[in-house]
Every structure is written in structure tokens, then in C-alpha cells.
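Researcher: Structure prediction, please.
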Amino acid sequence: MSEYIHKSHNVTVLMYHIVFPAKYRRTVIDADVDEVLKEVCLEIEKRYQIKFLEIGTDLDHVHFLVQSVPTYSVTKIARMLKSLTAREVFRRCPQVKKKLWGGEFWTDGYFASSVGKHGDEQMIGKYVKNQGKSYQKLHQDHQLALF
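Model: Predicted structure follows.
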């Protein structure tokens, strides 16, 4: 469960859903790799300001639900997770490196999405509207139109 992170001048609850596919979408994630990923992520929690709310694996990709602080960008979190987990998987599970022809563990890309603690965009908009006495909508972003 996520918690509010209290720092000296801010309180945050920033959560991200991050998905990493295995290189070539190979089915290399088995019970051994699951255990290594879990152990590495729990060690990352101890050393960095990242909390793993959930970790889920499939045969060819991994889902992370993480909470962090504003000083860690999504890119920094993804880079950190990819490098530390790949290094340890290759070290502890040499059969995976063989299946991937000695190359990389993760693909170059990833999927990331922010996750709200209190609901979707409409719920947040309603909350903001009800905070003041005279709410005025100054801007609303819609789906991108083609020219």
C-alpha cells in the first residue's frame, strides 16, 4: 500500500506502473528469475528512495508498481531498475544469458504510466473544483487533433 512520503518541504505520493519486456520478447522469466528479481528489488528499496508496491512477472515481461520521490524521474527509475536487475539475473541465472545469446536482458524501451492514489483525472478535477469558492477552468487538454 502506498504511503505519503514526508520530506522537509513537501509531501508526495508519486506512483508509477512500469513494464519491461525481455530482449527479443523471449520467454526467459521463470521461477529462478522471479526470485532474483524479487530479492534485487527488495535490496533496491533499502538503498534508494523507491518502494515496490507490486511486482508481477509473465514469461516475457515484468510489471512494477513503484512509489518514489520527485527527485527521481521515471527515466532514472527505469534505468536503475533495468541495470541492477539485469546484472544480477545474468550473474545468478547463467542459463538466461545463454538463451539471450550473451546479449542484453531487457529491451531498449519500456512502458511507464503514472498512477493516482485517489482516482482518475475526472475525480482529481472535481476535487480541485470543490476546493475554492469560484472555480474557473483555464485550460483543458483534449486528445491531440491531426492538424
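Model: The chain has a mean pLDDT of 82.
Researcher: Thanks, that helps.
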